[in-house]
Amino acid sequence: MSQIDILPLSRDPEGKLPPIHPVLLRGEREMLLVDCGCAGQLPLLEASLRAVGADPGRLTRVFITHHDHIGALAALTRAHPAVQVLASPTQTPCIEGREKSLRLAQAEALFPALPEAERPAARLFQRTLASVEPARGNRMTATPADAVIFTSRRAAGDSGCAEAAGRLARVAEGMPGYLAQSVRDPVGTGITVSSREALVAITAWRAHPAHEAARPQADAWYKSWSLPVCRVERTSAHPQQD
Fold first, then answer.
1. CB neighbours (10 Å) of residue 49?
2. Do domains 3-101+134-142 and 145-232 have the same CATH topology?
3. b/e string for 166-187 if b means 16 or more Cβ within 10 A?
4. Which of 3, 175, 209, 238 counts the highest number of beta carbons within 10 A?
5. What pTM, to 2 d.p., does this model score?
């Protein structure tokens, strides 16, 4: 792909929620969209595509990182029936409506342990997930997942690393396929495993301006680091885990 565009889409008219960021990857013959906004956002999504000079009618593929990111997918595939839909093997049955969303199953399992004050918002979240329209009819192709494993050893002093890490994590939460776990021991050795469920989503995150701006600081923040990218062939999970 020769061009990457990040499409910030607002999630509410008042701007209280952070935007989400579908990503468009363009090449000579392909135009691939990673995730597709929230339900009801097809007009906004198509307007965002046109704003970066992309014709929505030329979309060739849509990659869905996980079920609660399908948003406008059903409307998009009705409007553009030639688009091929790509998703991981674990997410495909949920996207097509053949199985309950893994995220909804997790939310339901966690609900009994929530404080009473948090339950109204949790019920709304469950209803939102349950109301997502399945996407059927287009060519659905299951694809293997990909993961980045970032292992690092902190340099002496903070040098703004903790603040930058928190800021990047908040940005990453709005990017396609953000599924990450991080640990760090008392002497500063840490590991972050981020499964993006698509190599294109990893490429999109690398190209994000916030990530690009942070990379030159790596030598000041870390004594050493490594960043292998791996193919995830199989996943096992309990409903209460991400």
1. 21
2. no
3. eebeebbebbbbbebeeeeeee
4. 175
5. 0.56
